[in-house]
Amino acid sequence: MLFIFILQGLVFADYLTELPKFQTGSCKAYACATNSKSKPEEDSCIWTNTSNSYNLWPCSSGYSCNLTSSTCVKNTQKIVYVNVGEACNSYSLCSVGVCTNDVCKGFSQNKTCTSHEQCDPGLRCYDGNNTCQPQIQVGQTGCKSYLDCVNWASCNTTGSSQKGTCIEYSSVQLGKTVSDCVGGFSYLCSFGACTKSSLFSSIGTCIYPPVSLSPNPKSCTSSSQCTGSSGGQIVTSSCDCGTNANGTSYCAPFLGDLSGQALIQIWKKALLLAGVCNTAHRSSDGCMSKIGMLKNTTQATLGYYSYSLYQNNDNCVRLVLNNDYWMDSSMILPFSLLFLSLFISL
Q1: Domain residues of the chain, as ranges?
Q2: What does the alpha-carbon distance between residue 49 and residue 39 come to, in Å, rounded to a whole number?
Q3: Which residue in 92, 103, 187, 341 is deepest, having the highest Cβ count within 10 Å?
Q4: Which domain of life is it from (predicted)?
């Protein structure tokens, strides 16, 4: 599951929000036990082997590992609330609107609204008269935020007017100006990287992203070993603990590396398909599931922000600790092949 939420007022399930990482230091080792007889309890799924290592054993079908109790517990179906345009049933209730033909039906065009979440896919809550109106198309002006634009675009407000132009995600070329440059990242820049025009502004210019000086994955013992290049300057990333049998740490990738650019391209492809979803939930888990991209966007997001955790995992680690990334991996294209196919098809 993508447990990433809006922080900067950009997109729900914000795929560029920092995810938790295992901090560098005395990294623990995680590996499969030699056999099930070594389990301390019959229902154990993870237990201490030595002071610096853990043994793991997969749970039976229908059970999952509770990481708090370190035991296998039976899976139960819980009631969840879903958004307008997403699938609903007796376990998935509509947060807004009503469940009609197994889909959450919101407010149609010209109906009175108080928030974007209420309007049907393809519509936004227009603050001019508080009614649901069509989202603004790419290249058209009049937007105040990304929510006003179609789901594959954001609002670029680089002029003197408070109203901007809807621009397709990841489409603004190097050297061009964008209004969403925050922390060196822009949703609009083709490579995702930007440099700010001033300290207290989000106006910036699209640039090449930093790249690692060594091939990934690179093992490390300190962040000083994790070097990259950005505009001719040497920069460093973090050295993060992994979840592997040797307790090895790895350098976090830079945005210009394969996993960073795959993140951008996979999400760009997903959002192009997300027009069937509510504008405020264009990148939610429910939307990604509806368009068949949840597994790929999940793997791309975790594979960039928590890169170290998924390197050289034992099978038990994949099943017990990192199933959020490896989930049913037979149905997910190999990372490098998926990255290549995106460039061919876009």
Answers
A1: 28-76, 80-207, 210-345
A2: 10
A3: 187
A4: Eukaryota
Would you say the pTM of this structure is higher than 0.90?
A: no
Could you read off the pLDDT of 108-142 as tens digits, one per residue? 999 999 999 999 999 999 999 999 999 999 999 99
